[in-house]
Amino acid sequence: MSSDDRSGGTAGVVLSFMVGALSGAALAILFAPRSGRETREMLGEKLRETSERGRHVGEQALQKGREAAEDAARYMDRQRDALERRRERLASAVEAGRQAYRDEKEKM
Q1: I need a labelling partner for 64 at 20 to 30 A (CA). Which of 21, 54, 89, 108 fits?
Q2: What Cα–Cα distance (Å) separates residue 77 from each residue in 12, 38, 67, 70, 83?
């Protein structure tokens, strides 16, 4: 069983934290000695704040994902270039070996 099977990963942890925070805030507000209107207003305000924080976290995660994708693309380009250089060196070495073989064969 892999670690991905056992947990929801980072997204699961963040989601669990947010749900727990929202539940705790909602319970605290519901049991506070306020009128129904004040409680609804406070709940609405907390919901807007939480929504904004969630949007901000989502934007940050998206930006980090883009940066990681760009880093991976640059890494792949470097590896592709290095592989091409190695292939060219190998092809040159093989051709030099063939030419050396031909030269020796002509001497005989």
Answers
A1: 21
A2: 33, 58, 15, 11, 10
Angular region, 32: left φ>0, alpha ψ -120 to 50, beta rest? beta
* Number of independent structural domains in the chain: 1
Q: Could you give the CA distance from residue 30 to residue 45 in angstroms, rounded to a whole number?
A: 14
DSSP 8-state class, residue 95: H
- Tens-place pLDDT, residues 43-68: 788 889 988 988 999 999 999 999 99
Write the pLDDT tens digit of every residue in 11-42: 778 888 888 888 887 787 677 776 778 878 87
